[in-house]
Design brief:
Blueprint: H1 3-23, H2 26-32, E1 33-40, E2 46-48, H3 49-57, E3 61-75, E4 80-93, E5 96-111, E6 114-124
Helix pairs in contact: 1-2
């Protein structure tokens, strides 16, 4: 896959993920997530797939805006890709209104021909 095609794929996948997070569409979000998901939050907590979906479903994570700005994309063989960038999330976390500006790394893996979100780790973005 060319660098341009890889960047386009990463942009499409990340937009789908952010749209599903903001809409709270559990079916769409669940379809994107790998059974092996590990979602590391900038708060130091981590969720597996079931815990993350449950938290979105119950409104513990209630996103109103999610903006991913991709800065780097790298192929991981023919079945994976890594995305690095920055992320702004606005919404409520555990009932507390928050705006989070983070840097993040995300991995996607092709599973049985379908791209699935495999891993995410973010850290609070340091202001310059």
């Amino acid at each position: 896959m060319t660098d341009e095609a890889l960047a386009e794929l990463a942009g499409t996948l990340e937009r789908r993920r952010c749209d599903a997070m903001v809409s709270g569409d559990i079916a769409a979000l669940g379809a994107l997530l790998s059974e092996d998901l590990r979602y590391g939050h900038s708060s130091g907590y981590a969720d597996d797939r079931a815990a993350y979906l449950a938290a979105v479903s119950t409104g513990h994570y209630a996103y109103r805006r999610a903006e991913c700005r991709i800065e780097q994309v790298a192929g991981l063989g023919t079945e994976g890709l890594m995305v690095c960038g920055s992320l702004t999330l606005v919404g409520q976390i555990g009932g507390v209104e928050k705006t989070m500006n983070s840097i993040y790394v995300a991995n996607w893996r092709r599973e049985d021909g379908v791209w699935r979100f495999l891993a995410h780790q973010s850290a609070r973005k340091r202001e310059a």
